[in-house]
Amino acid sequence: MATAPNSQNRFDALIIGAGFAGMYQLHLLRERLGLNVRVLEAGDGVGGTWYWNRYPGARCDTESHAYCFTFSKDLYLGWEWSERYPQQPEIVRYMNYAADKLDLRKDIQFNTRVSGAEWDEAAGVWRVRTEAGQDFSASFLITAVGCLSAANVPDFKGRDGFKGQWYHTGSWPHEGVDFTGKRVGLIGTGSTGVQATPVIAETAAHLTVFQRTPNYSVPAHNKPLKPEFQEWTKANFEKIRHDMKSTPAGHPFYIDDRLAVETPVDERERLLEAAWKVGGMQFRAVFKDLMLDVDANKIVADFVTRKIRETVKDPETAAKLTAFDHHYSTKRPIIDSQYFEAYNRDNVSLVDVKAAPIQEITPDGIRTADGVEHKLDIIIFATGYDGVTGPLLRLNIKGRDGLGLNQVWKDGPKTYLGLQVAGFPNLFTITGPQSPSVLTNMPVAIEQHAEWIADAIAHMRANGKVRVEPQADVMNAWGEKVQEAANATLLITAKSSWYLGANVPGKPRAFLAWAGGMARYRDICDDVAAKGYEGFAFA
Ligand code: NAP
Fold this sequence. Notes:
Elements: E1 10-16, H1 20-32, E2 37-40, H2 49-52, H3 73-77, H4 88-101, E3 108-109, E4 114-120, E5 125-130, E6 135-143, E7 165-168, E8 183-187, H5 191-203, E9 206-211, E10 217-219, H6 227-235, H7 237-246, H8 265-278, H9 294-311, H10 315-321, E11 334-336, H11 339-342, E12 348-352, E13 358-362, E14 365-368, E15 373-375, E16 378-381, H12 390-393, E17 397-398, H13 405-408, E18 427-429, H14 442-462, E19 468-470, H15 472-487, H16 518-530, E20 536-538
Parallel strand pairs: 1-2, 1-6, 2-3, 4-17, 6-18, 7-16, 8-9, 8-16, 9-12, 10-11
Antiparallel strand pairs: 4-5, 5-6, 13-14, 14-15, 19-20
The chain binds NADP nicotinamide-adenine-dinucleotide phosphate.
């Protein structure tokens, strides 16, 4: 960071990323506070995660009418979703609509990947460098890089010698991939693999799915939205918004008050069948004790297992698909469209790579530990992400005295409210670790963070303050609260979950998000602000 930035590259605030978070933060800082802001975005368009995730079947699990900005009624009313769950291209179209309507593009620099950021204590600014060698500086640095943008591509022996094509789902070719007549191998059965499987199976000559850990999934029941429903969402904007802000996961539906363990068997079965018909994320709203009580969880898990076994015709495949190592919904819950049905096709097979792990990628395919070589033309890595901390650590951020964020987080993330880190003045991390982030409907968490950050900066300006960072002891105490919140749920029991960092070799095990609920978190943040930003030190 030796080069001094020229005056044109000096801003009040720099935002990294032009997904939901970067777009709304730009809007707020520019329109509400009148700041001079620049967004740096690696892609050549807005969309963030959705700009990159163009794999077959990519669709959001949140229902369309709740997967959007709700800070502006005008913006909400001006858009019409076509299906119950929005498909990737429709989400990108929506985000372009929002960018146009809010006139955001003029302050976003596309095709610009940040390679480093360092706090300059003497000047009181962040110095930011891009891969292309451009330098920027700003009083505030706000990361809006998403939680699932740093790909986890296992370093299998022989990967680069593969004669066919291989892709990670998170950086899918914009021109698409033609599977016609191809033998395709798909590694990974998380949300992505489950979405991609039935779609790839439609055109591939053969699809081999390599499964390490099976996952529960419930039907999404996607469908075109009827005009009556579209009108209903518009007429009920305030209610939908209110409900999204009031619920633990930011969805516009409430979890039932019933306890599974106290509901008679017949009634339980009737309720589960009804919830199964509704499908999607709402399935989990059926009982209040689902995530709190092992016995309650088992009731639901057994029901889902039974449904999967009824769907998959080959008993051996069904057994592999239901050899679960975790309680239901303790890893990121999955919803699907014809995933289990895909295994009834002649051109789809399942390989259990827990029993016989992938040993190497050969020029012609994948060899597993049982000595079998699976011949393939295309390999797809649906192997997930270095979640939540990964996107931040790869920015190469250095705080006061050159202290690296990677040093501070070597044993797991440390933050105050997931918003700031001691030693990193004026750095804000939207949906950062230890905030609700991935446990919520993301636009809800994003709007709350962006608004809180804008309010905090406004507070500083009103009070003549130029620097803010959390007190170290307060930050550490927040870490303990995050752990307690996770311990109070069954989430903490899923030892192979990426929520705990278990999917990335060498990553410290720490629960990455605040599991105490979005509504409660909002109250905590509001309370901190009301008490003069208690726990933060201003200069
Ligand atoms: P993921 O949930 O982390 O799943 C990755 C899969 O790859 C797992 O099955 C994992 O097995 C497997 N895997 C990883 N390394 C492997 C290896 N070395 N050998 C064999 N298998 C390996 O990733 P994802 O499916 O991309 O989803 C990540 C998150 O993105 C989701 O949890 C969700 O939050 C979000 N997402 C959302 C949507 C949506 O809203 N519709 C769609 C896609 C993704 P193990 O389980 O054994 O580790």
